[in-house]
Design goal:
The chain has 97 residues and is mainly α. Helix content is 91%, strand content 0%. It comes from Artemisia annua.
Length: 97
């Protein structure tokens, strides 16, 4: 009689183990999918953040050019002028060549 209950107990334990293993695998797959989705969202948010940084940087550069000259340092005042002068010299050299 004990043998009968022992075998039945082993079968129950085995089927319980199989069921637990199936549940563990299902949970692991679910968590993997959730992690993948969250990582995709994170990458998307990072890209948006980088785009916002670029827009902020562009806006700061634009504001610098629209700000009063008195607020600019000497180097900031000379840099665009020297750039324009370089372009004019390059154009003149091309015209003479």
């Amino acid at each position: 009689m004990h043998r009968y209950f022992g075998q039945n107990c082993d079968a129950t334990t085995s089927s319980t183990f199989v069921r637990m293993e199936e549940l563990r695998k299902a949970k692991t797959e679910h968590l993997t999918i959730e992690l993948t989705n969250l990582l995709a969202q994170l990458e998307s948010k990072k890209k948006v953040g980088e785009q916002l940084k670029m827009i902020r940087k562009e806006n700061q550069e634009k504001k610098r050019w629209t700000s009063p000259i008195e607020n600019l340092g000497l180097e900031e005042q000379l840099k665009p002028i020297m750039s324009m002068l370089k372009d004019k010299v390059d154009q003149r050299l091309l015209a003479l060549a």
